[in-house]
Amino acid sequence: MSAISFPEPALATEPVEHAQPRPRRWYRQPALASGVILLAIILFAAIAAPLLTSYDPIKENLGQSLLGPSGHHWLGTDQTGRDTFSRLLYGLRTDLRIAFIAVLFPFCIGTILGSIAGYFGGWVDTVLMRLVDIVVAFPFYVLLIALVFVLGPGESSIYIAITLVGWVSYARIIRGEILVAKRQDYVVAARSGGLSSVRIIARHLLPNVITQAIIYAMSDIVQDILAIVTLGYFGLGVPPPTADLGSMINDGQNFLTTHWQLTTFPGLAVVVVGLSLSLIGDGLADLIRPGQS
Amino acid sequence: MLVPVAIGVTIVVFFLIHLIPGDPARTILGIHATPQRIALLRRQWGLNRPLVSQYWLFMDRLAHGNLGQSLFYGTPARPLIIARLPPTLWLIVYAAVLAITISVPLATIAATRKDAVRDHVVRVVPMLGLGMPPFWVGILLIYALALRVHAFPVSGYGTGFFGHLRSMFLPALTVAIALSPVVIRALRASMLNVLGAEYITTARSKGVPARRLFLRHVLRNAVIPAVTVLGINIGFLIGGTVIIENIFAIPGIGQLMINSIFQRDFPVVQGVTLVFGVLVVLVNLLADLSYAALDPRVRFDR
């Protein structure tokens, strides 16, 4: 996890050829600022779910089944009388928690393997990149579903499957960045100073290249959320009765013609989460490489 | 390049069985299985042999076109899978065509007026699209275009070429909607690149008409990076069909995969995974070859 808390690339390492433009603050980036605000609202709603709704997301109440939206039940109730809005918040909570944890493992493993491949080159690089080619040869969802199936449905299987499938992108990105960065003067200087390879990678190279991986992580979290929701839809995700957006969509599907809100709103929640993370990713990219969008 | 990856694909598929917790034969057959059946399955899969010899057995069978025996149907897995390939291939090609049909005009609209309102609108579309669960889009399309307006059938594969074309429109559109955000982004970026190139300025100053300039000079050069992006995301495209086939009840290998998972039919799941892996490897080869057709500068030198 320590990989994420590395400091921002030090400005001193960049050649100062002309006056530095006024540093752009993150809140002056409209995409980044609106993404951060949107994500903050979603995270607040997910974390504060017990405060925002008084209904139990799991307890069934068959006398109240399939009610339409009203003042009591903002989005109505599902076929077992559970409040849809409450399940939506708790579902977001589950899925966001799993997605944010799930992204950490491939991020760390991919970053470590990618920097080893990029820095040392040679046969290590060849072997690792061949491995990447093999994993990439499988369609994302096919390998994911096959892995979750053999490991057995559940949260830990999701983490393992996402890690096994997801590390390759980080490894590729970090390897590519390090291949370029290791020829820079500051690395040559560090090397001639007799610093160990581990130290050069961790203290000198990674802080300069990690932002690319962080930008990618934003879209990767979106992909992971979609994967978690999809697995939930097929009954391969979090086991019921825990609220999960995917299983909510699956349940609501049977009442599509009469109660479209049961299917539509869980999906919309995912779309809004995806939008906020995309905005953050785009904004970060703009912040680092201004003018290139 | 292709051969090591293909061998790697078989190794990954082979190892799936060893990721099953506990005794694979017992786990797959469930708690009610007789010891005889478990022993038979263990012998069939060679589970009591060393790992290398198990893999050798797996490859030997594969070389003879044997993908194993379906536990649910009791028949060989290969004909089961082959019979379901055509709908899947249909869906993949149809979706790719629709994705390009959606992406090229939108990217053009955005790139030709950079930073205008329409550019910003087009740039927000992929952001929304990336977060849409494909199966959810499929369900909404069924609701809007099949149940509300009876424009398309709710599900199925249809019969005959035009039947397929009509029945598969919604599923293909669903996959295309999931795919187009990435393609639009890449195409817009590469069009902007091309529009800034010197040969475009030259062509403009020569007085090449705008339409001809766009079609012959900009689009053709911008399409190559878009094909690359489509090639990179081909795994995503093909993987998306697994999900979508199940929403629209299309009898392809994606539906076979999910059904086999519910029937705990491990050999079929394994076989389908292998076929999907091989499919991606082949399509990537095709994408590489199509660069040569699109870009005369690319030659395959030996």
What does this structure look like?
The complex is a heterodimer of chains A (293) and B (302). Chain A is mostly helical. Chain A has a single domain (42-288), classed as Orthogonal Bundle (MetI-like fold), CATH 1.10.3720. Helices cover 67% and strands 0% of the residues of chain A. Chain A contains ten helices and no strands. Chain A has helices at residues 30-47, 49-52, 84-120, 122-136, 140-151, 155-181, 185-192, 197-233, 245-253, 261-288. Chain B is built from 15 helices and no strands.
Second CATH tier, the architecture of chain A: Orthogonal Bundle
Q: Which strand-content bin applies to the residues of chain B?
A: under 5%
Our measurement of the CA-to-CA distance between the termini of chain B, rounded to an integer number of angstroms, reads 13 Å
Kindly provide the name of the CATH class of chain A. Mainly Alpha
Count every beta strand of chain A, where a strand is a DSSP E run of 2 or more residues.
Answer: 0
List low-pLDDT spans of chain A. 1-16
Mean pLDDT of chain A: 81
Query: Helix fraction of chain A?
Result: 55-70%
Task: Name the chain pair with the biggest interface and residue counts per chain.
Answer: A-B, 49 and 49 residues
Summarize the structure.
The complex is a heterodimer of chains A (293) and B (302). Chain A has ten helices and no strands.
Keywords:
heterodimer; A: 293 residues; mainly alpha; MetI-like fold; 67% helix; elongated; disordered N terminus; B: 302 residues; 76% helix
